[in-house]
Amino acid sequence: MGLDALSQKPHDRLADWLADDMVAVNLLIRDRMASEHAPRIPEVTAHLVEAGGKRLRPMLTLAAARLCGYGGPFHVHLAATVEFIHTATLLHDDVVDESERRRGRPTANLLWDNKSSVLVGDYLFARSFQLMVETGRIEVLGILANASATIAEGEVLQLTAAQDLATTEAVYLQVVRGKTAALFAAACEVGGVIADAPVGHIDALRDFGDALGIAFQIVDDLLDYGGSDASIGKNTGDDFRERKLTLPVIKAVALADAEERAFWERVIEQGDQREGDLARAQAIMARHGTMAAARDEALAWAARARAAITLLPDHPLRAMLDDLAGYVVARIS
Amino acid sequence: MGLDALSQKPHDRLADWLADDMVAVNLLIRDRMASEHAPRIPEVTAHLVEAGGKRLRPMLTLAAARLCGYGGPFHVHLAATVEFIHTATLLHDDVVDESERRRGRPTANLLWDNKSSVLVGDYLFARSFQLMVETGRIEVLGILANASATIAEGEVLQLTAAQDLATTEAVYLQVVRGKTAALFAAACEVGGVIADAPVGHIDALRDFGDALGIAFQIVDDLLDYGGSDASIGKNTGDDFRERKLTLPVIKAVALADAEERAFWERVIEQGDQREGDLARAQAIMARHGTMAAARDEALAWAARARAAITLLPDHPLRAMLDDLAGYVVARIS
């Protein structure tokens, strides 16, 4: 099977298997993002929620719950919760990054303004906790409150690490855990919790989500230096322009000679970026093989994700999650 | 007893009575606003948390719990929760309003930046839910998740109502419930819930907080047109410059003749504000008596707050809450 077939199927197969559940999730999302008093809220959220995101995180929750034999109604609430938290972080990230495109559309803060992005994000965050309360399970509130704190911490850490050439791979990993892996891990874990799965299975699901999230983010950061605008719906070079220290850059800085060091200081630390600098950064990273080295790390995290779920019972959904971990890194293979 | 004595005592007496509890709350706040990985977080929060705010909301929670005979440890967690949610909304409000001062100091977003305000607010919000999870009481999570949704909705509503002369007193009341009364009401209610108070007492506490919050906000809005910079730590005329439709303005617009109507359209709808316009707005409101009318409404809400707690058992704290409702409106009497 070619990489192309591999890279398309796992997500679609998950979506097919979980189709009825996803219909219920989408209905619940539409119902709960409404606001009787403040019509601007659904205007802003619809922009993101209807934009055709992959709904990867809610599918992880649904898959985890179903895989653990859950037959109740609350996996739908938790899947909607996870999507709301994700959407809230995107809205707040739009304020933060001053990025110009998100999912291939103008960001909410260009269509409306920073104010609406902040407040509507807050609204969705509050709504997500209301959904969790409805499940009556305080453990899931604990898991997702912890994830939310880790997300915010990771974003702040990224802010302070940006423009700092002393950023280590360990700090990068913390940032990635915060900005991506924490919600992936929690999305999987709460699916196991709501199904009353054994502790070992819940741990396996969390580890799967964590490793999958890290692989996913490393790949995303690699694509920012190599993907095409069309394929990822965001501008190549965004991270470079925002002077973020992502894995291939951190590795290249560690291997830099004096001239390259001066280059990184100018473009990242001083923010003095000129025509051709992005291409030069790409050339330096290619010379040191840091894109390939970062790719190898992504592959290793994907392998860890796959290893974690071997502890779970045999199930068609387990096979799809396994394939999904392969798909995530296939984007850069 | 003169107004001055009246206006100083209730808050201080509450603080004295609850001194040991407040020490515990402040310790917990300092402990939980720390972040191992992201030192910018306590830098930003300390700025607000240490700024000597009145800690009115956490004292309401402590007072409600003690008044209902609570002897456990978790009223401290809930008081810290309420202060974290309040601080998070201030941080996000700083981004939103582009206001220049908060509690008499420069706002966080001038000392740091919008990014930090958004993300640190998110962090405190997540931390507040972690604190609630520790109490093991899912009802309090429900109450404060609902309050958080109402707060965000109210802020969005205020955003869309700003600059709109068609804003009614009913919309104003909704905005005020969102921006102030929802958290006051929840702060009181969770104190009763954690103490396992009878439903009638919990309802009375919530009604007290709601009415107190509405009185408090009407007074705050009045002071924005008449208080001195020193006494309230924020710039008189902020609401006017931000073109907010607050109660005395809404009442004045309803009574405006053609010339006044043209004035309001220019300064509020078109945002064309010139030297002397604030003084003219004040003069128009004085002519129609709308400041006095709004003051009467604040007094009526304070009376409702006092009436609500007559249902509670006789207790020194009940008397202090009663005095507090008097104090809140004494600022404008």
Concise description?
Chain A is mainly α and 333 residues long. Chain A is 76% helix and 1% strand. The first copy, chain A, contains 17 helices and two strands.
Overview of the molecule:
The structure is a homodimer of 333-residue chains. With 333 residues, the first copy, chain A, is mainly alpha-helical. The first copy, chain A, has a single domain, classed as Orthogonal Bundle (Farnesyl Diphosphate Synthase), CATH 1.10.600. In chain A, 76% of the residues lie in helices and 1% in strands. Chain A is built from 17 helices and two strands. Chain A has helices at 3-17, 19-32, 40-49, 56-67, 74-97, 108-111, 114-135, 138-161, 169-194, 199-226, 229-232, 238-241, 247-254, 258-269, 277-288, 290-308, 316-330, and strands at 101-102, 105-106. In chain A, strands 1-2 form a two-stranded antiparallel ribbon. In chain A, strand 1 (101-102) and strand 2 form a beta hairpin. The longest helix of chain A is centred in the middle third of the chain and has 28 residues, at 199-226. The first copy, chain A, is globular and about 60 Å long. Mean pLDDT of chain A is 87; it is low at 1-7, 97-105 and 228-233.
